[in-house]
Write a structure and sequence with these properties.
about 260 residues; alpha/beta; Rossmann fold; eight-stranded mixed beta sheet; globular
Length: about 260
């Protein structure tokens, strides 16, 4: 059982995919900046055998026809709610990586009843000033020169050299996701997250939560994510060995095992 289509949102349309039986509990997979629904291919079909799985492309990403270089986090949250409404989903577990993890935390803090459980992978609760400045520089660069100027730098942060050498096909697929992202969509998501300040609020998180990080992640480091897990009541931290920023791809089996255990 599957579905693909578009959801109307202010300023455009969002591409949506659904897999699995609609009678099963719903899981929404929220991807990283500069990627699309294919980022989660290694989590299917296993996840869809037990859950109703929703994926969608952010504004200016993948097949979505929307994107504004100056959008706030509220727009990303409204988009999530629009996708859920379009598929008549009232409650869901959110599984987010990087940008998706930030959206998951913000959504659960606002409505723990609708989102009773979240998985936050390779994300930050607070955006350090020096990192925010770096994101601004990347946004400016792509708006001037296109996504090609940040593609290789991004991949170097996302994966270890060993993964890039051993999986050239998958590596190239993800590089194409980056290049297919529109500059406005990329810059818009940066505008939404560059002022993230969630760490002090995580003590109010009432959703069951799992934090996942690769031991070689140089941005959302294990130390930073441990701090988040400690702040969120009742949560736990899973460190995946041998992975950089995208453990769901680089160490898919270990990520899937952690996700299955949590669900």
């Amino acid at each position: 059982m599957g579905y693909e289509g578009w959801v109307n949102v202010p300023g455009g349309e969002l591409y949506v995919r659904e897999d699995g039986d609609a009678r099963n509990p719903c899981v929404v997979l929220l991807g990283s900046l500069a990627a699309d629904t294919r980022l989660w291919d290694d989590q299917l079909p296993g996840l869809a055998s037990t859950h109703r799985v929703l994926r969608y492309d952010y504004r200016g990403h993948g097949h979505s026809r929307a994107g504004d270089a100056n959008q706030p986090m509220e727009v990303l949250l409204d988009d999530l709610l629009a996708v859920l409404a379009s598929r008549n989903v009232t409650t869901a577990t959110l599984v987010g990586i990087s940008l998706g993890g930030m959206i998951a935390m913000e959504a659960a803090l606002r409505d723990c009843t609708r989102f009773p459980a979240i998985v936050v992978a390779a994300a930050l609760a607070d955006m350090p000033t020096d990192m925010a400045d770096g994101w601004d520089a990347r946004a400016d660069a792509v708006l001037r020169s296109g996504m090609g100027v940040i593609a290789d730098e991004t991949l170097a942060r996302w994966f270890t050299p060993a993964y890039a050498a051993g999986h050239p096909g998958r590596w190239q697929d993800i590089r194409e996701m980056i290049l297919e992202t529109t500059p406005a969509g990329y810059a818009g998501c940066i505008a939404a997250i560059r002022k993230m300040r969630l760490l002090a609020r995580l003590g109010a998180l009432r959703s069951r939560s799992l934090f996942v990080v690769g031991d070689l992640d140089s941005a959302s480091t294990p130390a930073r994510m441990r701090q988040m897990a400690v702040a969120a009541p009742g949560s736990r931290l899973q460190i995946i060995e041998g992975a950089a920023h995208l453990p769901n791809v680089e160490r898919a089996a270990a990520f899937n095992e952690a996700l299955d255990s949590f669900l």
